[in-house]
Design a protein that fits this description.
single chain, alpha/beta, six-stranded mixed sheet, four-stranded antiparallel sheet, 10 helices, binds adenosine-5'-diphosphate, binds magnesium ion, ABC-type amino acid transporter activity
Length: 267
């Protein structure tokens, strides 16, 4: 294969990766947090990102839906640059309206439980499709009920977040993220704020999404779960991808000493 096969394949109209990060760098106050990260996630696949605290995992995810703006590099979701728009012959920062639309292609579930506390479960899920996508409220409600059924919480639609367990709140958060029909789902340690007995119910939902072919980028410390659902495991340290590969290779025989040492600390 020639060295240019990749770019040419894209140019010829073949589908490229669903998410593509090209040379992403980001500093905070002179400290480099992401240092030229390149990463592709193929459509319908799951990539799990692991690495020590402070290695830049959350910042990386936040760049994908433009909660952080990279200092350099580009991010494409389904071939389209996130957070940028063309104005005449210039490429400029996207307007809030365009950015809101871009974000509907990327669903995100955070570590902290962050449902709207003053809205019911159903209202939490209906909010975005109605406000951002102008979906009719009755249609959004019907879809929200389907999603609640899928995460096993059909009976909780009238509850308020404070009346739910942490695991239930995260399952509602997943339903809320799915409500805008995103092309890719991002998870930032979705189980790390949960009591151990509640972790399983959230991972089950993520597992079902993977089985349904959802493209996902998941930051997690649950190595056994990552080994099971991931097509690719990415190990990050100090703002860089140290190595990546299929679970068996990464967990079985990591090439780098740093990777092996990290796996040893959390297994
Ligand atoms: P991880 O998720 O791997 O633990 P993060 O992406 O949260 O890592 O953070 C990487 C580094 O960037 C940390 O040192 C963190 O303190 C720093 N950082 C993250 N966000 C900000 C911010 N908004 N302002 C300043 N520093 C930040
Ligand atoms: Mg983090």
């Amino acid at each position: 294969m020639s060295a240019t096969a990749g770019p040419l394949a894209v140019a010829s109209g073949e589908p490229g990766p669903m998410v593509r990060l090209i040379g992403i760098s980001k500093s905070f106050g002179g400290v480099t947090v992401l240092d030229g990260v390149d990463l592709s996630v193929a459509a319908g696949t799951v990539t799990c990102v692991v690495g020590p605290s402070g290695s830049g995992k959350s910042t990386l995810l936040r760049c994908v839906n433009r909660l952080e703006r990279p200092d350099s590099g580009a991010i494409l979701v389904d071939g389209r640059p996130v957070g940028l728009e063309r104005r005449g012959d210039r490429v400029v920062e996207a307007s809030p309206r365009v950015l809101a639309r871009h974000r509907t292609s990327v669903g995100m579930v955070f570590q902290a439980l962050n449902l709207f506390p003053h809205l019911t479960v159903l209202q939490n899920i209906v909010e975005s499709p109605v406000a951002v996508q102008r979906v009719r409220r009755d249609e959004a409600r019907a879809r929200a009920r389907e999603l609640l059924d899928r995460v096993g919480l059909a009976h909780k639609e009238r509850a308020y977040p404070r009346e739910l367990s942490g695991g239930e709140q995260q399952r509602v958060a997943i339903a809320r993220a799915l409500a805008v029909r995103p092309k890719v789902m991002l998870f930032d340690e979705p189980t790390s704020a949960l009591d151990p007995e509640l972790i399983g119910e959230v991972l089950t939902v993520v597992r079902d999404l993977a089985a349904g072919g959802m493209t996902m980028l998941i930051v997690t410390h649950e190595l056994r779960f990552a080994a099971e659902v991931a097509d690719e495991i990415v190990f990050m340290d100090q703002g860089r991808i140290v190595e990546q590969g299929p679970p068996a290779a990464m967990l079985g025989r990591p090439r780098h000493e740093r990777t092996a040492r990290f796996f040893a600390t959390i297994q």
